[in-house]
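Protein folds are increasingly written down as discrete tokens. With that in mind, we are printing a sequence and the tokens encoding its fold.
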Amino acid sequence: MDFTNQNLAVLFEFGGTTIYLTQTLLATWIVMGVLIVFAIVVRIKLSKFKAIPTGFQNVVEIMVEAMDHFTINTMGESYRHYGAFFFGMFAFIISANYSGMLGLRPPTADLATTGSLAITIFLITHATGIKRMKLGYLKGFVQPNVIFLPINLIGEVSNLLSLCFRLFGNMLGGVIILGLAYQMFPFLLGFVLPSVLHAYFDVFAGMLQAFIFTVLSMTFIVQKGSKK
């Protein structure tokens, strides 16, 4: 194990086994913890919500309605139930992307995180296709001829890889560039330039990549659900 790995945060012995905790893992726990606490607070306050929303209730309803409308407009009314899933996924991705502004290593800059998200979407897309089209969905892989089966399978894997590496590459690139900026520039310039870079890579690119991942995921699911 390379102890100079910059992603390594903590290591300790437990029962004769060395346990490695990476910055990615710790940042993921923090992001998950914040989102879980937020969900618990919303659940507690839910019983006190009023017909005319104000304050915190207004913010929550705006977020939920925005994702609900976006899901319907992107996927269609029959896919409306996916809104809750994509709300959670989008919240995790954008929170993970923005965690870099708090001095954490964004979990989405780790291939394990983006790979897990992509695999989840991959499984959901094909489960949706099978649920909606039964055996007709599987026949689509050998159309227009059985010799196209390998090509069709490669196409499915390419969708998985594109989701995974697009998010991973953009976020890791931001981490690397920001790290270089802090190391290479004098103190005063290093204070101004990284702030500009943070505004782009964390705020703008973080929002953009979360949006792109969500839209592509929705598109893949709809395509599989209506595959001929």
Q: What stands out?
A: The chain is about 70% helix and 5% strand. Strands lie at 8-14, 17-22.
